Amino acid sequence: MTDEIIIKNQPIFNKILNKINNTQNNVQAYILCCTSKTTLDTYSNLFSKVLICPYKYKENCNNCNICSRIDNNIFSELKIINPVNGVIKKECIIELRNDFQTQSIEGKNEVYIINDAECLNQSSANAILKFLEEPDTNTVAIFTTTNLDAMISTIKSRCQIIKLNNNVVDKGIDFVIKQTNLTEEEIYESLDFIRTVENNYSLAFSKVKDEFLNQFKTKEKLSSAIYVILLFYKDVLNYKLKNTCLYFEKNDLINIANRQSVNLITKKISFVLENMYKLEYNVNMLLFMDNLLIGIGEMKDD
Ligand SMILES: [Zn+2]
């Protein structure tokens, strides 16, 4: 009978989990790294259940009540630390250590997860290192990061590093649909509009009034349409820098990309981004759009 845990598209992680599940864990600290935070959240949760479940962990474990408590975030022998304003404070680590001073009682291991571990500064990292040096073999640390290079090296050197594949779709038109809640047709309307702005600027102002704002009538819709414009410029930049597009068809933007410098496109991206946030406070959508157009039109290479 096989009770193998099967995780698609993660061969290395899969192997490590099954090994721990079938024998025992003898590593005290792991780093999970991936470009997607969603993937990290999913797998750090699974990893902690495999480490903690008092039985051999099976998918949707109902042999113990611990695994379901972990899923509901109410299991006290699993602690999760997130940075506040980009910093993980030393005090958090000291508090964690105090909580874990007593031997684990219910689960196989006590686990703490430190998310965005690149946010550990030198003093919180020192506190962690002291913690890792204590010979409590039942305490396991899981660090997660989207930026392994930025993690403090003394911590990295104490951990087994597991690189995860990104299982989340973060490109293509499907991604744009998911991010914006617009239909494919609406997305193409937005693209058509920004291409008019780039290729036939004098027409853009009448197009805003006659078509664009009729299509995107609410602030919410308009904000999504502008997000499409932002992704369009990002793709123009992707094309210029890497000769590849993430969201849209290359052929739709090659001409526009060839006409302008990386510097100019970067400026347009920041400008659109700044204005997206301003939309919330703008009552007059036409005025808002006119200002956006003027800003883009006046932008020059310097
Ligand atoms: Zn369980």
Quick tags:
302 residues; Rossmann fold; 13 helices; 5 strands; 53% helix; binds zinc ion
Tell me what you see in this structure:
The protein is α/β, with parallel strands linked by helices. The protein has two domains: about 10-165, 3-Layer(aba) Sandwich (Rossmann fold), CATH 3.40.50; about 170-300, Zinc Finger, Delta Prime, domain 3 (Up-down Bundle). Helices cover about 55% and strands about 10% of the residues. The chain contains 13 helices and five strands. A five-stranded parallel β-sheet has the order 2-3-4-1-5, covered by helices on one side. The mean pLDDT is about 90. Zinc ion binds near residues 53, 57, 61, 63 and 66.
Identify the CATH homologous superfamily of the largest domain.
P-loop containing nucleotide triphosphate hydrolases
Q: Mean of residue pLDDT?
A: 92
Instruction: Specify the number of helices.
Output: 13
Which strand order spans the largest sheet, edge to edge or round the barrel? 2-3-4-1-5
- As a percent range, the share of strand residues is 5-15%
Q: Bin the helical content.
A: 40-55%
Biggest sheet details: 5 strands, parallel
Report the uncertain regions: none
What is the architecture of the largest domain at the second tier of CATH?
3-Layer(aba) Sandwich
Shape: elongated
Overall number of domains? 2
User: What hetero molecules are bound to the protein chains?
Assistant: zinc ion
N-to-C SSE string, H for helix and E for strand: HEHHEHEHEHEHHHHHHH
CA radius of gyration: 25 Å
Number of strand elements: 5
